[in-house]
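FAQ: What does the model actually see?

It sees only this:
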Amino acid sequence: MTREVAEKTVEFIKNKIKENKLEYVIIRFHGGEPLLNTEVIKFIMDELETQPCKIGYFMTTNATLIKEEMLPFLRKIDALSVSMDGTEEEHDRNRIDKGGKGTYQRVLEKVKLLLKYMPNLTARMTVTPDTYKNIYTNFISLSELGIRNIDPFLDFTSDVWTSEMLAEYMNEMKKVAIYIKEKEKENITIRTAMIGTAATKTKNTLCGGGKTSFSITPEGNIYPCMEVAFNKAFLLGNVEAGCDNCELLEEIEKVGHERNKSCDGCGRYDYCMVTRCKIVNYAHTGDYNLPKPIMCANEHIKLGLEKYLINLTI
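And it is asked to produce this:
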C-alpha cells in the first residue's frame, strides 16, 4: 500500500467512525507479511490517534523482520500474533524463506525479544496434515518459551483431512487440555482459542461484511472480508469513491437470512461460524449455504474439547 492509498484509507475509516458514532474499531494489519510496510502502518496508527473512539490494533507477523527499534510502535498493537508452529523441526516443515532455509532460529530470536516487552504475545500455530500428529509436543515447546497465548488453527485450505486424522488431532488436543490443567496448579494460565470459545460464544447475528466489516487491499479496493479479498465478484468499491455496490450488499444480507439446509439438526447451528458467515462458505465451496466439512469438524472438536475440559479432574 502506498502512502497515497493509506491517506485515503484513513479518511475512509474516519468517515465510518463519524457516520456511525463508533465507540470501538478493530483494525487488522494483514499480509503477506505486514512488516514489509512498517512506515504505512505507523502512518495509519499516527493519523488515527486523535479519533474519539477506542481503536484496537491486531497483527499477525512471521517476525523475521522485527528489529529492536520497532518495539515502541509494536507495543501499540493490542493483539500481536507470531506465526510459529512448535519445535524447530515442525516449524521448518512449512515456514521456509525464499532460499529454502527454515526460519525457526530467526523467529525464536525475535520471540525472545518480544516477550521481554509483550508478555501477552500470541503464537499462531497452523496445523497441517504434516504436523497434526505432534500438536502436544509443539504446544509444550511454545509454552516452555514463555508464550502464554497459543492458538492452533487447522489448515482449512487442505482437502486431505479424514475423520481418522481429525480423531488423532482431537486426542492430541486432549493431552493439551490436561497440560493446561496441570499448569494451573503452578499458577500458570495458558490460553488457547481451541479451548474456551465454545463455552462462551453467544448466538449468531447476521454477517456484517460490507457494513461493519471491510477488507481494504493495497490498491485501496474494498471487499466485505479477507476471505474474498481480490475476488472481483465481491468488490464493493474503493477508499476514494466509497462502497457503492448496493446489489452485493443486498445479496449478502439476503443469504444471511437463508437456512443452511445441510446444517439443519446440528446442535451448534445458532453458534457456528459457517451458519453465520456465508461468505466463508462461498469462498471455499462456491455455495453460500454449503460449508466445507473441515470447518464443521473444527466446530465439533472445539465443543468436544470444552466438554472434556469441564469433566477433567486432575
